[in-house]
Amino acid sequence: MIGFLRGRLIAKHPPTLLMDVHGVGYELEAPMSTFYELPAVGAELQLFTHLVVREDAHVLYGFGTEAERRLFRGLLKVSGVGPKIALGILSGISVEAFLRCVEAQEVDTLVRIPGVGRKTAERLLIEMRDRVRALTPVGEFAPVTGGNGAQAEAFGALVALGYKPAEVTRLLRSTQGAATTEEIIRRALQAAVKAPGSSAT
Q1: What confidence tens digit (pLDDT) does each residue in 57-81 have?
Q2: Extended strands (E) in the chain
């Protein structure tokens, strides 16, 4: 089983992207939540992966965070939900928002996601209810850009402090030039203070 890939982004055409990993080109399908955070073509990145074996093909799926992959795998266990619907759900709602929907049994929110009808939404709420605790993110997010260990460590630390992954990704863009984890975190926190309405949750 392929757990993750680290390499260079060659092309991105939603929902498909191409990565060069030591001279081997890997085609992956990814949810829009991952595409939104992809670096520019040519940049280095790391993605968590899940391989689906079908009679006619082996399809590799890529995710920017472990939480996304965990939810994807959980969704595949729901009767009637395949990879296409699972990708649609991840593209239409964040992991945190989905888990809140399950906890609150908000069927109307799920129905608004393209490709999810009322029966599928109701089945999701029933079958995912007991899995919510295991799927709840615990701060082990890894940045899609994954350029170096210091950035990854800073990302995890900022998420642990309560900042949302998307906000952390934005804050890290203001830390270019910082070499150590501590310096990256310091600059990111400075940027958070300066940004209006930015705060840990």
Answers
A1: 899 999 999 889 999 999 999 998 9
A2: 4-13, 16-21, 24-29, 44-53, 58-63
Q: What is the pLDDT of residue 195?
A: 63
What span, in angstroms and rounded, lies between the C-alpha atoms of 20 and 6? 9
Q: Which amino acid is at 102?
A: V
Six token digits for residue 158? 């900022």
Residue in 16, 20, 140 with CA at minimum distance from that of residue 69? 140
Distance (Å, whole) CA 173 – CA 129: 36
Tokens of 156: 């995890």
What's the alpha-carbon Rg for the chain, to the nearest Å?
Answer: 17
| 8 Å CB contact between 55 and 42 | no
Indicate the CATH number of 4-63 among 2.40.50.140, 2.40.340.10, 3.90.1150.10, 3.40.50.10540. Answer: 2.40.50.140
Residue 5 has which token pair? 């890939």
Residues in the chain with pLDDT values less than 50: 138-147, 199, 201
Fold of 149-194: Helicase, Ruva Protein; domain 3 (1.10.8)
Tokens of 108: 């109307």
- CA dist 110 and 67 (Å) reads 19
